[in-house]
Amino acid sequence: MSLMKEFKEFAVKGNAMDMAVGIIIGAAFGKIVSSLVSDVIMPPIGKLMGGVDFTGLFVNLGEESYATLAAAKEAGAATLNYGAFVQTVVDFIIVAFAIFMLVKGLNSMRKKEEAAPAAPVAPTEDVLLLREIRDSLQKRG
């Protein structure tokens, strides 16, 4: 029964919930970046390179030749799809840079919090009274 209790404590703690929210937002962010790369960044780069569609770049590993990647896939030919790989690498670089910037920002915020020294806690009335008693006893003795 203690295993269930430990799991319940873990699942209810804020860290587990924060992690779940982060994973969900990360998945959505990944889709946004994939769309950004495939729909906004790669088309102009392909146009500058002479009208190249990166998703259609491939090397046929068989003996027959195919005009397009779609035709090669339809025929069941083995292909090396390096254009899709290039697009995935660009996706990764953008996501990695965004995460780097986020972590860098969080670290700088933590450093600012650590740099500000905490104000010393004022002693309670009980402690002040005990100090007065101590001091008065020391003067008598």
Describe the protein.
The protein has 141 residues and is mainly α. It has five helices and two strands. It has a two-stranded antiparallel ribbon. Helix 2 (14-48) crosses helix 4. The longest helix has 35 residues, at 14-48.
Secondary structure blueprint with pairings:
Blueprint (H helix, E strand, L loop, with lengths): L1 H11 L1 H35 L10 E2 L8 H6 L4 E2 L1 H34 L9 H16 L1
Antiparallel strand pairs: 1-2
Give a quick precis of the structure.
Helix 2 (14-48) packs across helix 4. The protein has helices spanning 2-12, 14-48, 69-74, 82-115, 125-140, and strands at 59-60, 79-80. The protein is an all-alpha fold and 141 residues long.
List the defining traits of the structure above:
141 residues, mainly alpha, two-stranded antiparallel ribbon, 5 helices
Which series of helices and strands comes N to C?
A: HHEHEHH
Give the N-terminus to C-terminus distance in angstroms.
60 Å
Largest sheet: 2 strands, antiparallel
Give, in spatial order, the strands making up the sheet with the most strands: 1-2
How much of the sequence lies in strands comes to: under 5%
| Gyration radius from CA atoms, angstroms | 31 Å
- Secondary structure tally: strands: 2
